Amino acid sequence: MSQLNNDIKIKNLNHLGIIAGIIDEIGIVEIINERLGVKAQEKVSTGIIVKGIIINAMGFLSSPLYLFSHFFDDKPTEHLFVEGILPEHFNDDRLGKVLDRLFEFGLDKIFLAISLAACQIYKIDKSCSHLDSSSISVQGDYLICNKEDKDNSEPLPIKITHGHSKDKRPDLKQFLINLIVSGDNGVPFCLVRFPCA
């Protein structure tokens, strides 16, 4: 009778290895680290955390931030990222700080930098592009969005207001999203949010 080896650990990679490879090929981690910087005291860079967020999103799961690290419990993190990366590095405190830094820097700028890098790597033709917009209707109070504080240096989230509604609901507050995509394969270039006026 053979004895099972207790040192064997099984990890699930599934399709996430392909996604991690595409992230590495585009250079998303480097783009984010270059723009947001890397602090010496950080165990895991901002770029690696964003890579983890993308991999989690492509894992077709949605869970609160405090459960985020559990997603990686059965994943080969050292294969998906780099040696020394463990599931506990993706804790809710670290994720919250990274999301704040991304917002303060400007998600539109990061989105554009990543899109242009992808276009260069995959040789996407940028000579023709398409623009489309959508109005998103929302309900409730958004007091922080309606403040007109010129002395406040903190960036405000998207401005939510009344305006012409594509949903034919002028009674609801809304915001507008514009997306520019390439004529070649529809790769998104630029995502811009505007108040509806």
Can you describe this structure in just a few lines?
The chain is of the alpha+beta class and about 200 residues long. It is built from seven helices and three strands, in the order H-H-H-H-H-H-E-H-E-E.
Question: Can you walk through the features of this model?
Answer:
With 197 residues, the chain is an alpha+beta fold. The protein has two domains: 16-120, no CATH class; 127-195, no CATH class. Helix content is 35%, strand content 14%. It has a three-stranded antiparallel β-sheet with strand order 1-2-3. Helix 2 (28-36) crosses helix 3 (46-57) and helix 2 (28-36) runs antiparallel to helix 6. The longest helix is centred in the middle third of the chain and has 15 residues, at 107-121. The mean pLDDT is 82.
